[in-house]
Amino acid sequence: MDRGKQEVQGRNEEEKEVIFMNIEKTLVIIKPDAIQKGVTGEIIARFERKGLKIVGMKMIQMDEKLAKEHYAHLADKPFYPDLEKFVTEHPVLLFVAEGKEAVEVVRLIVGPTNATKAPAGTIRGDFSNSTSRNVIHASDSKETAVKEIKRFFKNEELFSYEFRNEYYRYAADE
Ligand code: IDP
Ligand code: MG
């Protein structure tokens, strides 16, 4: 959810500075294979360390209808039936990450779809060696992020809060 140039206050109260940056929200799904491998904490930690803010989080079990909507762009692929079974037969963890250019930043942290080719240091590169069981989903554009957040979260399930000290997360000229 691109809120455009958003005023971020309070990073330096003494100097009464105000900085501006592109704050976005994006959807992350921790897939069943990551839960089975017991690496959900390590995955979430990577986004926290980057300085992204978790503004909503929950566990759900997707049904066929939700999977078909979420993966509509893949409905005709030969692997779709397996993908649907994979994401519906086990609960998944969802969260919304917020921060500067969050959509692109999260995709960079996640890495490319085919985990076999994903660079070490990315989540897929480090936790998977598969194109299908690739541990995580992340929205692929700002437009997709808006739609996907709406698909999985009600407004009242998303929160707005300040990090105590923005100074340690962003430079004044960003
Ligand atoms: P993305 O997750 O990197 O955005 P998409 O092309 O949107 O990639 O595919 C969604 C999910 O479908 C992938 O994360 C993966 O689980 C599965 N998938 C995509 N391509 C293949 C494939 O060629 N074989 C098996 N599964 C695939
Ligand atoms: Mg995708």
Q: State the low-pLDDT regions, or none.
A: none
What is the global morphology?
Answer: globular
Proportion in β-strands: 15-25%
How many angstroms separate the termini?
19 Å
In the CATH scheme, the class would be Alpha Beta
CATH H-level superfamily:
Nucleoside diphosphate kinase-like domain
Helix content, binned percent? 25-40%
Question: What CATH architecture would you give?
Answer: 2-Layer Sandwich
CATH-derived topology: Alpha-Beta Plaits
Bound ligand species: inosine-5'-diphosphate, magnesium ion
Characterization of the model:
The chain has one domain: 2-Layer Sandwich (Alpha-Beta Plaits), CATH 3.30.70. The chain has helices spanning 32-37, 40-50, 64-70, 80-88, 102-110, 123-127, 142-152; strands at residues 5-9, 18-30, 53-60, 92-100, 136-138. Strand 1 and strand 2 (18-30) form a beta hairpin. Strands 1, 2, 3, 4 and 5 form a five-stranded antiparallel beta sheet that branches. The chain has 174 residues and is of the alpha+beta class. The protein is globular, with a radius of gyration of 17 Å. The longest helix has 11 residues, at 40-50. The protein has seven helices and five strands, in the order E-E-H-H-E-H-H-E-H-H-E-H. The mean pLDDT is 92. The two termini are 19 Å apart. Bound molecules: inosine-5'-diphosphate and magnesium ion. Inosine-5'-diphosphate is lined by residues 74, 79, 83, 113, 131-132, 134, 137, 140.
What would you say about this model in short?
With 174 residues, the chain is an alpha+beta fold. Helix content is 33%, strand content 22%.
